Amino acid sequence: MWRLTFFVVAVGLASALLAWLADTPGALTVEWLGYRLETSVFAAGMALGGVLLATLLAWSALRYVFTRPAALAELMKAKREKRGIDALSQGLIAVGAGDKDQARKFSSQAHKLLPHEPLTSLLRAQTAQLHGDRTAAREIFRTMAESSRTDMLGVRGLFLEAKRENETEAARQFAERAMRRNPDLAWSVDALFELQCKAADWDGALRTLNVAQRQKQIEKPVAERRRAVLLTAQAKAAEETDMNRARELALAAHKLAPELVPAADIAARVMASQGDSSRAARLLVRTWELNPHPDLALTYAYALPGEGPRERLKRVKQLAQRTPDNMEGAIAIATAAVEAREWDEATDALAPYLDNRPTARICTLMARIAGGGMGNQGRVREWLARAVHAPRDPAWIADGYMTDQWAPVSPITGKLDAFEWKAPVEVLAGPRDPLIDAEVDSADVDGARIVEAASSDDGVSSQTTNEAVEAEIFVAPRAPDDPGPEPGKKDDAADVADVAAAKAE
Q1: pTM: predicted TM-score of the whole model, two decimal places
Q2: 3-state DSSP assignment of residue 505
Q3: Cα–Cα distance between 417 and 228 in angstroms, integer?
Q4: Which helix or strand (DSSP H or E) is residue 35 part of?
């Protein structure tokens, strides 16, 4: 609107000026080189205006003539760029759709029309990957990594190629390179952290975790949990060589994650071995209240060296009172009571859990009670038979892998803090063992008699079987500082399924 107003005002002023000049006659005389020119002021003004207009028109014509080649070149360039962008768009669509032929076609066109466009290099690399040409893809990514415009894209491509080919060291180097260049890139920090955890590089993983937290790529609770697991892994590695360092690391982990059972267990074991039993007990109690676990109960029971079985039973009962309705507390009391040969107390502890499908550990403990307290081999065999089909007890499980020893990373995926203490998923029932079924069906309820299930051609006498069962049941408990069986070897406290299998054989 203001432009229209300005135009109207300008035209009005010009008209007024011309009218004033026309109404105000005057003479203009010019003498130059012996010539004399006389005219009116109005005519001179109009002549000057005509000369200026002619000059402007001539300049515009000359400018148009001289600038046509460059304009034509720009027009051709714009058309070329449009064709190149269309080829890029179609090529990326073809790659996403998995169309190898179309991807190759449009990749070639884009490279011809837009050779210096970063997306052209990306399209060529993805086309090479689509055709399985890893060498060509790596060369393209390497070229991109050397350019300041595409260096991060090239490094990421090289990282993915190295990871796809299981070249762990090369992938780690590319991730480190990307993180050094730009710590804000979450993919490089996460990838480097994952690779360092898989390689058990706990110091490097802690440094990378600090970078992630400093760049606000991870929430504080998650970072503290991961740091606690890493510190626990360091403490576990240092426990046999440097107990002071192991204690320091485990306590730091426990402070960050009091519910982390391995951290509390390691710290308490080391402190107990160094004579600081009272502090070890307080630490175990704190973690037990948050996360009851049999390892904590075992370490708590043996925290004071030199105590007898009855004193250990008293200590375990005090610990179990912290979680009165938890099954782990009852099992811990029963285990300590069996060791103290307090059979009635062991039975009372397990009584609330005997009606509704007791777990394998409870069945095994009841077998020990039956064998030690009543000397009833029929009851022993009955409980062991029930243990074979009983629900499985909790274990450390990660990605379908089950073990009784905690580890900081999953052996399947290498993920940190993957192990959870939980009951395994029940497997589908398979063919039942006729030997065990016969024992269960023929066992007298009062334990007065037991029908031998093994046929005469089994070659195994009742006396031999009972001796093997007793040997399995009455096993001395493992001390807290006992590292347990070596990989591939059976523990003294063998799984009840193995007991039944040995009987069947």
Answers
A1: 0.71
A2: coil
A3: 10
A4: strand 35-40
Residue 301 lies in a domain: no
Copy the structure tokens of residue 93.
């669509």
Q: Which long-range contacts (CB under 8 A, 24 or more apart) does 120-125 make?
A: 120/84, 120/88, 121/150, 122/150, 122/153, 123/88, 123/91, 123/92, 123/95, 125/157
Question: 23: which residues sit within 8 A by CB, 6+ positions away?
Answer: none
Flag whether 238 is in a domain: no
Q: Is residue 201 situated within a structural domain? A: no
Task: Tell me the helices (H) and strands (E) count for the chain, helix number first.
Answer: 22, 5
Distances in Å between the Cα of 371 and the Cα atoms of 179, 250, 376, 445, 470 are 63, 40, 6, 16, 7
Structural domains in the chain (count): 2
Determine the Cα–Cα distance for residues 224 and 375; give it in Å rounded to an integer: 52
Instruction: Please indicate, yes or no, if residue 454 is contained in any of the structural domains.
Output: yes
Residue 473 lies in domain: 363-391+426-505
Q: Long-range CB contacts (< 8 A, 24+ apart) of 347-352?
A: 347/373
How far is residue 95's CA from residue 123's CA, in Å, rounded to a whole number?
A: 8
pLDDT at 136: 92
At 398, give phi and psi (nearest 5°).
-150, 120
Query: What is the predicted pLDDT for the residue at 25?
Result: 66
Identify the segments of the chain with pLDDT beneath 50.
Answer: 428-505
Q: What is the pLDDT of residue 256?
A: 96
- What one-letter code names the amino acid at 249? L
Domain boundary (112, 132, 152) is at: 132
Q: What residue type is 352 in one-letter code?
A: P
Find where tokens 């308490």 sit.
Answer: 268
